[in-house]
Amino acid sequence: MFSNMFSKKPDIDETLFNLRMARKQLDKQAAKAEKQQRAEMNKVKKALQEGPDRHEFAQLYAESAIRKKNESLNYMRLSAKLDGVASRLKTAQAMQTVII
């Protein structure tokens, strides 16, 4: 009797909104990771310019920069997947309104 009253299914518009918000958050996180990657690359350049005794630090900074670049790519990849899901959901919503 009360099970239907408390388990409200989210409608398609709400789901589309949530997908768009998640995509925007992922895009922001990707931009942040790219910014951190550029900062790490600047550290690499600075460490290499300081002399040969700083090559180990430069290597660590370079590894961190590569990690940040991969992180950014993963965020962008996930964002693209969410965008695809949102577009398919929007198409389904349009088809549903045509049928009704």
Keywords:
single chain; about 100 residues; mainly alpha; 3 helices
Could you characterize what this model shows?
The protein has 100 residues and is mainly alpha-helical. Helix content is 88%, strand content 0%. It is rod-shaped, with a radius of gyration of 22 Å. The mean pLDDT is 90.
Unreliable runs, pLDDT <50, ≥5 residues?
A: none
Q: Which percent range fits the helix content?
A: over 70%
Largest sheet: none
Tell me the strand percentage band.
under 5%
N-to-C series of helices and strands: HHH
Backbone structural class: mainly alpha
Count, helices = 3
Mean pLDDT: 90
**Which word captures the global form?**
rod-shaped
- Calculate the terminal CA-CA distance, rounded to whole Å: 29 Å
Structural Rg: 22 Å
- Count the E strands: 0
Short description:
By secondary structure, the protein is an all-alpha fold. It has 3 helices and no strands. The model has no long low-confidence stretch (mean pLDDT 90).
